[in-house]
Design a protein that fits this description.
The protein starts with a helix and ends in a 10-residue tail after the last helix. The strands form three sheets. A six-stranded mixed β-sheet has the order 5-6-7-3-8-9, sandwiched between helices. The chain has two domains: 192 residues, Rossmann fold; 63 residues, no CATH class. The protein contains eleven helices and twelve strands. By secondary structure, the chain is of the alpha/beta class. Helix 9 crosses helix 11. Keywords: Antibiotic resistance, ATP-binding, Nucleotide-binding, Transport. It comes from Blastococcus xanthinilyticus.
Length: 312
């Protein structure tokens, strides 16, 4: 956790959920979700298709009513919150119907005007349009019709639309779908800037586990209607595979050793072999390994006799 998060850890969470349940008819999708997102924290929600990620996000955004449970987002119940609350929240959907004949500059200026009444000296709104266009890498395309933009450029515009009001809380749903590697790298820098400099709380969903590992302070895994894992990528990996594998070489001789204490073991290697070491590698289970193991563990429990499988 960053120093900024340590400082803010004592404040009220940006999101607080307890006992969240959602059923569709007789089908239980969420069976007791508990989660927190602290101020200025980047949290990634992972889960297999049908786990209820979209349902959870829609409830937090105020677009869907839960069957049961307590939900507080920026201190309010999103299902009953007013326009002042909505001005504090940004949403980047997987896709949306854009205005093909408008230009990015015109669209952002129009949308930005809606946030002006909610501007305060402590939190001025909206972002200045030219600055935002530069931030998302659309300056050169600012006056082109949106219908002529590439898929990646339109996705950058989606992000700009989601943050034009300078949100205190941002929901990102598969935010880099369609991005090329450079656009993805630029977006990752933007997320870190929003979190570190603006104090924006961010909850994102993605199927890109490498992206989750790069962006998230914490990762939540939703499976079987509940949060089954909560921690940093490194913490979750240690839960599944606490033992790391250290590989090293001294000239032509190669060695492999499993250990729970990587740093002391590597230190001893240098003390014993020094310049004789010609290669050194530490291998841990990847986030993908960890994610698959935790989901499979939950699904196997759900199909045991006497347990009802929960799916969506």
């Amino acid at each position: 956790m960053s120093p900024d998060l340590d400082r803010k850890a004592g404040s009220e969470p940006a999101i607080r959920v307890r006992g969240l349940q959602m059923t569709y008819g007789e089908q239980a999708v969420l069976t007791g979700v508990d989660l927190d997102v602290r101020v200025g924290e980047v949290v990634c929600l992972l889960g297999p298709n049908g786990a209820g990620k979209t349902t959870t996000i829609e409830i937090l955004e105020g677009f869907r009513l839960p069957s049961a449970g307590e939900v507080r987002v920026l201190g309010e119940d999103p299902a009953r919150a007013g326009e002042a609350w909505r001005a504090r929240v940004g949403v980047v959907l997987q896709s949306w119907r854009d205005h093909a004949r408008w230009t990015p500059r015109r669209l952002l200026a129009q949308l930005g005007d809606y946030f002006t009444p909610w501007s305060t000296p402590e939190h001025p709104r909206p972002y200045e349009v030219d600055m935002l266009l530069e931030t998302v890498g659309l300056t050169e395309h600012a006056d082109r019709k949106i219908g002529t933009l590439s898929g990646g450029q339109r996705r950058r515009l989606d992000v700009a639309v989601g943050i034009i009001g300078r949100p205190e809380l941002l929901f990102l749903d598969e935010p880099t779908a369609g991005f090329d590697p450079q656009a993805r790298r630029d977006f990752h820098e933007l997320v870190h800037r929003l979190s570190d400099l603006e104090g924006t709380s961010i909850l994102l969903t993605t199927h890109d586990l490498a992206e989750a590992e790069k962006l998230a302070d914490r990762i939540l895994i939703l499976s079987g209607g509940r949060i089954v894992a909560d921690g940093s990528a490194d913490e979750l990996t240690r839960q599944v595979a606490g033992t790391a594998e250290v590989r090293w070489a001294c000239g032509a001789d190669r060695f492999v050793h499993p250990t729970d204490d990587v740093v002391p073991f590597v230190r001893r290697l240098f003390e014993e072999h020094g310049d004789e070491l010609t290669d050194l590698e530490v291998r841990r289970a990847s986030l993908e390994d960890t994610y698959l193991a935790m989901v499979q563990r939950t699904e196997s429990r759900a199909t045991e006799p006497g347990l009802q499988e929960v799916a969506r």
